[in-house]
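Appendix B, example 12.
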Amino acid sequence: MHKDPQDYRRFKECFDRNDSPRALDKVEWQYDTGFADELLVNVAVEPTPTDEEIAAIYAVFPVPFSLQGQAVKAAQSLDTMTDTRHQGKGLFKKLAQQVYTRCREGNYRLVYGFPNGNSAYAFFNRLGWKEVAEVPFMIAPLRTKYFLQRLPVLKHLAAVLPDIQWRGKKSVPSVYKEGIRPIERFDEQAETLWKKFAANIPLAVTRNAQYLNWRFLQKPGEKYEMRGYWEKGVLTGYVIYVVKEKHGGRIGYLMELITDPAQPACGDALLRTALNDMVAQKADACLAWNFAHSPNNALHKQNGFYPMPPKLRPIELHFGVLAMQAEDEPLLAEEKNWYLSYCDSDTV
């Protein structure tokens, strides 16, 4: 497959035929990122009387990545699809292995991703991936009804009790309240801040300006709220979030929270600002991805986030990795080495 409008159209049509519709502009955005020249998408093609159509797809996309402080080439596994008329031919495994060969030849160090409950077995048992962890869902309850409806013992109360606001707005110190303002575009200051935040993080997608602008400003059909705090003209923290109608409720998503580790009060003010806005928008809950060892985990906990019980999780997701070099596997397979947030999600 090439970075060609006709190929993108065929890609979309394969998903559309198999009850997983894709918007063409989002397909183009996802795979024409500007992070790398190569398109790491392999397809099996079936000729038709007038054209040709895609029978199967395995796709990863390049991301900027930091491995123990070193900039390396990495890719996130994203789209897999075998047309129902071509299942049982081994196309998934064949295409995936072809992509991994291309990654090794291109000096990529790893491919990682988030297989759901339906695909996890294939990745971990047929493709040689190592499971790092379950995706670290956290939740901050904001209203009562959403939770009552999901707890079998209390579900009957949801119909008779009022939908009470669980969390009220929290005060933000005036020194921060006056200085927090919208971010119009990320620049080199975001990169400087990321280096401070990630100084002790062995493995993470690099939150540089190019990646952040692509992820949050260029994504078609999305409007993320982005707030930053500047002290004497220097960016010392930012928060990114969005509220969506999903999973049977009005859900806030904490996409990212990055702060100067020397200024935790700034991070607290930014997170309070985001949650206050979600309360004003009548969100039922706020979800986050955050490991217990993450530099900003304490900020999550002090603002009412808890590890999300499996029964409340919107989807079963696993976090896994495939090392392109055998010597990297012990480092890559260790949960404590990773930083994740909803910024890494391909679905929100």
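Residues 165 and 266 are 26 Å apart (CA to CA). The chain has two domains: 5-113, 137-316.
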